[in-house]
Design brief:
The structure is a single chain. By secondary structure, the protein is α/β, with parallel strands linked by helices. Helix content is 23%, strand content 18%. It contains 10 helices and 16 strands. Strands 1-4-6-5-9-10-15-16 form an 8-stranded mixed β-sheet, sandwiched between helices. Helix 1 (11-22) crosses helix 7. The longest helix is centred in the middle third of the chain and has 19 residues, at 224-242. The protein is globular and about 50 Å long.
Length: 423
């Protein structure tokens, strides 16, 4: 779906889009209800616009002292964004995003870490593994990071509301088995048979880890561009609240990571993109065999290459059609033929300012095409670092590496990359 002409990289425009997408027809919407705030939580110069919900005051970066009986970490949550809206005879809140926080007793890292989940998921992916081990949140908190974990707007703990957001969709168990948890059984792409890391064997119905994982799945907005229009401004608002931060995105969440890095490269100190949504421009589907993939549909799935929403290109892009798409003539064995920009390629100057790493698992369905995202960014002058887990002696992983048996080792490797780039 094409973008709607929002000014490239403009925060104000993203916020305007959020308001537009939340608007409903005159038969249902009856205007906004101003929020009465008993006491201001921030300076007058930072006051929230009328009708919106102010964010709570920023958490202290480090506890002032540690009593003998104080827990090792502090847990909390808050909501960012959101506004009251009349819907028929009801007043509802729309556009809010749930943020869960974990604070170590001693914050030793200079920037907080913001974790953003992918399609059909929520932030619980990062809290613990499906077989009960501590998750990536715990791993990074123990390394001294203030960690924030979100649920996408309109999903999970952020609240679902079909009356406002429109139709929802959800993934079935077989779909997740094929690509996320048991690709070795279905063997739809060449790397699938290498998958060995799901707890308790192949992740299919009846496997206790899979059953727990599938229980965590939630409905998601059927309109993919609408999801970007809602989450992008909420994530920007979160960074405005917590200050400069490191983004860790998974799958679909890379869409938001690119948009936020483009809009505010000053706030994104680094972007860890774990298996980003792709490949650029078009979706692919896997069918197995020698010719194991094909393009899914004729329209561009991501009009601006990486995203459905506009990015800041140089020379500027006024409409998606300004980006000429050319497909590679051939690809390496086990990989798709990438769609890149036709030459001369436009650059992405804002993304080039943000240290970025693309992380790909050995047996994931991303293994055939994450190289295309790498090539697209490099062509646009935003050359990312690349980590292929197999090159780090981390073998057998699939897309849900944060839940698999070597999840701690993967987290340690990501932390090592961050430490190296923050020097």
């Amino acid at each position: 779906m094409a973008g709607n002409g929002i000014a490239n990289g403009a925060l104000a425009a993203l916020l305007a889009v959020q308001g537009a997408i939340l608007a409903v027809g005159p038969s249902r919407a009856q205007g906004m209800v101003p929020v009465q705030v008993p006491a201001p939580t921030r300076a007058a110069s930072q006051a929230a616009p009328p009708g919106t919900v102010p964010a709570p005051a920023r958490e202290p970066a480090q506890p002032s002292g540690l009593a003998p009986d104080e827990p090792v970490t502090r847990a909390g949550y808050f909501y960012i964004g959101g506004r009251y809206q009349k819907l028929g005879d009801k007043t509802v809140m729309v556009g809010q995003m749930f943020v869960q926080s974990r604070t170590p007793a001693r914050v030793t890292q200079p920037y907080p870490l913001v974790m953003v989940h992918g399609l059909a998921q929520t932030g619980v992916n990062f809290l613990a593994t499906a077989d009960g081990r501590p998750g990536w949140v715990q791993s990074f908190v123990e390394k001294g990071y203030q960690v924030y974990v979100v649920d996408q707007v309109g999903r999970g703990r952020s609240g679902t509301n079909p009356e406002v957001y429109g139709p929802y969709d959800r993934l079935g168990s077989r779909s997740l088995e094929r690509t996320h948890t048991a690709p070795e059984i279905y063997d739809l792409y060449p790397q699938a048979k290498l998958h060995t890391r799901w707890p308790g064997g192949p992740g299919v119905q009846g496997n206790a880890g899979f059953d727990q994982f599938f229980a965590s799945q939630v409905p998601f907005l059927a309109n993919s561009q609408q999801t970007e229009e809602l989450v992008d401004p909420a994530l920007l608002a979160l960074l405005d609240k917590v200050g400069p931060a490191i983004l860790l995105t998974h799958g679909q969440a890379a869409l938001f990571g690119w948009a936020v890095s483009d809009a505010r490269p000053d706030l994104v100190k680094a972007h860890v993109s774990v298996e980003p949504s792709g490949p650029p421009f078009f979706d692919v589907q896997f069918r197995g065999g020698k010719d194991f993939w094909e393009k899914a549909g004729d329209g561009r799935a991501r009009a601006y290459g990486l995203t459905r929403m506009p990015l800041t290109f140089d020379p500027p892009v006024k409409a998606p059609e300004d980006l000429i798409v050319a497909q590679q003539a051939k690809a390496a064995d086990g990989h798709v033929r990438c769609w890149l920009q036709g030459e001369p390629a436009r650059t992405l100057p804002n993304l080039a300012k943000v240290p970025t790493v693309l992380v790909t698992a050995e047996a994931s369905f991303h293994a055939p095409y994450d190289t295309c995202t790498e090539a697209f960014l490099a062509q646009a002058g935003a050359k990312p670092d690349v980590i292929r887990l197999a090159d780090r002696d981390l073998h057998g992983n699939g897309h849900m590496m944060m839940l698999e048996t070597n999840s701690d080792a993967v987290a340690d490797m990501l932390a090592g990359w961050i430490a190296g780039r923050m020097k």
